[in-house]
Amino acid sequence: MRWPFSFIETEDIMKALKIFLASSGDLSAETKEFDSILNSINKIYQNLSPEPVKWETDIPSGSYNKKRVQDELHPLLNESDIVILVFYSKLGKFTLEEYELAKREVTKIFVYFKTGFSPGNKEEVKNYFKVIEFKTKIERKNELLFKEFENVSQFRNIVTTDLNLYFSTI
């Protein structure tokens, strides 16, 4: 039996956006806040589905055929639509590596620097100096704009604002 009319199913087209967050261990509060930021944004944009890319859940544990674990992260970063890099007291070797890879492979990069670090010893001074050098380098080369924040609340506000501005153009 044929119906005299047809049903047209419309499907909301959801655009999944993978977001890679790179930071050192001294920014664990900001890393935890990031999930909450994405949950809030998910409620605003019905056509977008931002999802965090996390090494803790997106790569299996165990050995990696004599590769570095970092080499397992690179494909995840390459497949990401957005990379967010956050720096504070040290410039991790892997975070810098992720920055360089993101510049080559990813279309949108956000960089944030947490302020207020006060080194307590020579090793911390040495590590923090690398952060300052990196920040100066991207400023001098005019490679991208970055923002600074003092605490988790400010981090939440600037990341939310930046992602909202970016998502409104998609």
Report the strand count: 5
The CATH superfamily bears the name P-loop containing nucleotide triphosphate hydrolases
Overall mean pLDDT: 84
Count of discrete domains? 1
Class in CATH? Alpha Beta
Work out the helix count.
6
Principal-axis shape equals globular
Q: Provide the helix percentage.
A: 40-55%
Which descriptors would you attach to this protein?
170 residues, 6 helices, Rossmann fold
Account of the 3D structure:
With 170 residues, the protein is α/β, with parallel strands linked by helices. The protein has one domain: P-loop containing nucleotide triphosphate hydrolases (Rossmann fold), CATH 3.40.50.300. Helix content is 46%, strand content 19%. The protein is built from six helices and five strands. The chain has a five-stranded parallel beta sheet, sandwiched between helices. The longest helix is centred in the C-terminal third of the chain and has 19 residues, at 122-140. The radius of gyration is 19 Å and the shape is globular. The model is unreliable at 5-11 (pLDDT under 50).
SSE blueprint:
Blueprint lengths: L14 E9 L4 H17 L3 E6 L1 H4 L10 H10 L3 E6 L5 H13 L2 E7 L7 H19 L5 E4 L2 H16 L3
Parallel strand pairs: 1-2, 1-3, 3-4, 4-5
What is shown here, in short?
The protein is α/β, with parallel strands linked by helices. The protein contains 6 helices and 5 strands. The protein has one domain: 3-Layer(aba) Sandwich (Rossmann fold).
